[in-house]
Amino acid sequence: QVWSKDFWTSARANFTYSTGVYDVYEEPKYKESYRQHAGRSVRQVWGYIAERLFIDDEEAANSPSQADFGSRYGGGDIKYTDVNGDGKITPADMVPIGHPTSPEIIYGFGASLGYKGLDFSVFFQGLGRESFWIDASDKYNVSRNQFGTAPFVNNTQLLKAYSDSHWSEDNKDIYALYPRFSAYHNLNNSAVSTWWMRDGSFLRLKQLELGYTLPSKISSKLRMESLRIYLQGNNLLCWSKFKLWDPELGSYGLNYPIQRTFNIGVNVSFK
Question: CA 28, 32, 35, 36 torsion: positive or negative?
């Protein structure tokens, strides 16, 4: 919109909602209806419902058996809900959890304005209705060429967030961020569950730019048609419920982070 010879504005926005479900899925007729894939999103995840951590070995021994994971477990390990009430934790207790792993909502919006030689533009980018799971596995994943975030196993580093909040004999916090530390692959604690589920939605200040174009009478003296100087910033801010790392990295926060960049440039047009 041109408001006068010296002032103009513009705005833009986009919004996409996309989802897909299985109409038919070749699978057994499960006793538990929640195990059926038909009618669910193609990106739906099934996992265990994590209640909290076991406060000690005695509580673990007197709870529904979690031996199906094939890993030693006890105080400080994740306690799961026996959904079907059969007295043991098995894949039959896995239920649909979270949003799909691909965002169902993607959006962006921005605005630009100019006054005389000055111009300013801003653009925001975001997504919603997406879940991801912190990669708590300490088993080498060949397809991604990386380890999980489980500390100490396979020489994986200890994240400060895990150091600050984990179950230990001295601090039996049953709602700590991380279960007890171990030096082996703990299948009980790396199972897909609500314990590691996180909201992947975010809003990012994707780009901000400020520019100044020299008056034509000055640029013409320099034998130029126009000369514009600008300062640009990318990935400046991000708002998200998830705080451990950039949510756009998803499950594995030890990858190379998304960069915040600043650019100074000059656009020159010659006659």
Answer: positive
d(CA 167, CA 97): 24
Report how far apart, in Å, the C-alpha atoms of 86 and of each of 13, 32, 52, 80, 81 are. Answer: 52, 12, 20, 13, 11
Give the 3-state secondary structure of residue 76.
coil
What CA–CA distance (Å, rounded) separates 237 from 240? Answer: 10
Which secondary structure element, helix H or strand E, spans residue 4, and what is its range?
Answer: none
Structural tokens at position 141 = 């994943």
C-alpha distances out from residue 142 to 112, 145, 146, 148, 196, Å: 46, 5, 7, 12, 21
Contacts of 212 (CB under 8 A, 6+ apart): 117, 118, 119, 228, 229, 230
Helix-, strand-, coil-residue percentages of the chain, each rounded to 5? 15, 35, 50
Along the 271 residues of the chain, how does pLDDT read in single tens digits? 889 989 999 999 999 999 999 999 999 999 999 999 999 999 999 999 999 999 999 999 999 999 999 888 999 999 999 999 999 999 999 999 999 999 999 999 999 999 999 999 999 999 999 999 998 875 544 444 456 888 888 778 899 999 999 999 999 999 999 999 988 888 999 999 999 999 999 999 999 999 999 888 887 777 788 889 999 999 999 999 999 999 999 888 878 889 999 999 998 888 7
| 81 CB-contact burial (10 Å; exposed 0-12 / middle 13-18 / buried 19+) | middle
Say if residues 18 and 42 touch (Cβ distance below 8 Å): no
- Give DSSP secondary structure letters for 86-129: SSB--GGG-EEESS-SS-SEEEEEEEEEEETTEEEEEEEEEEES
Contact 192, 135 (CB under 8 A): no
Tokens representing residue 215 in the block: 């008056």
